[in-house]
Automatic annotation (TrEMBL):
The keyword Transcription regulation does not apply. The keyword tRNA processing does not apply. Residues 11-98 form the Mycothiol-dependent maleylpyruvate isomerase metal-binding domain. This is Maleylpyruvate isomerase family mycothiol-dependent enzyme. One of its GO terms (molecular function) is isomerase activity. Keywords: Isomerase. It holds the Pfam family MDMPI_N.
Length: 208
């Protein structure tokens, strides 16, 4: 995918996720996500933070958090999730589908990863069988490397990831197999529900 294709994929991902969010029940909005400590509504609020806070506001919020990026994003996600309606949280994504925002670290692929992974944080936790289109997955699988694993806190020492639904593998060691999008979550430091991964190392990557 070239730059134009990736931007189109980002816009499509945001619109599709917004449509999905509109179908959730109140119980699902308050259910835990794969992001530790965040419900679905905090994840949804976080996903649109970059669209809604101009750079001066972000820098001010970061200063209030004493330079702690995770402290800042956690506080803003909780605040926005408490003040915005579920309809507004979905609309934030839909209305900014074509916004050029990208995370401060990484390129345009990182922006796609931000949306895809947080979307999976929601759908996998809720047991919703949404399949991320293969072309989007392949872009993100191609960015998995030692630097990205370290950034996301993914410990794959002695583990080889191998997708069982497309031709992709990464690493060396004991084989961990599963759907490509589930292995992508593992590469982004997530623990996922049981039954989705196979192989001797699977217990290391499953939600307790």
């Amino acid at each position: 995918m070239d730059l134009v294709d990736i931007r189109r994929a980002i816009a499509a991902e945001r619109r599709e996720l917004a449509d999905l969010l509109d179908t959730l029940t109140a119980e699902q909005w308050d259910a835990p996500s794969l992001c530790a400590g965040w419900r679905v509504r905090e994840v949804a609020a976080h996903m649109s933070m970059g669209f809604r806070y101009p750079l001066p506001a972000v820098l001010w919020e970061l200063a209030k958090a004493r330079g702690g990026l995770h402290r800042m994003t956690d506080r803003l996600a909780r605040k926005d999730a408490a003040t915005a309606s579920t309809g507004e949280l979905a609309a934030f994504l839909r209305d900014h589908a074509d916004h050029p925002w990208k995370p401060p670290v990484g390129g345009i692929e990182t922006a796609l990863g931000h949306d895809v992974i947080h979307g999976l944080d929601i759908t996998v936790a809720l047991g919703i069988d949404r399949r991320v289109p293969e072309e989007r997955l392949r872009v993100l699988l191609g960015t998995v490397n030692p630097k990205s694993l370290k950034f996301f806190g993914a410990d794959l020492d002695g583990v080889r990831l191998r997708a069982d639904d497309l031709d992709w593998s990464y690493g060396t060691g004991a084989e961990l197999t599963g759907a490509a999008q589930d292995l992508l979550l593992v590469a982004y430091g997530r623990r996922i529900p049981p039954g989705r991964l196979h192989g001797a190392p699977r217990a290391r990557f499953v939600v307790a």
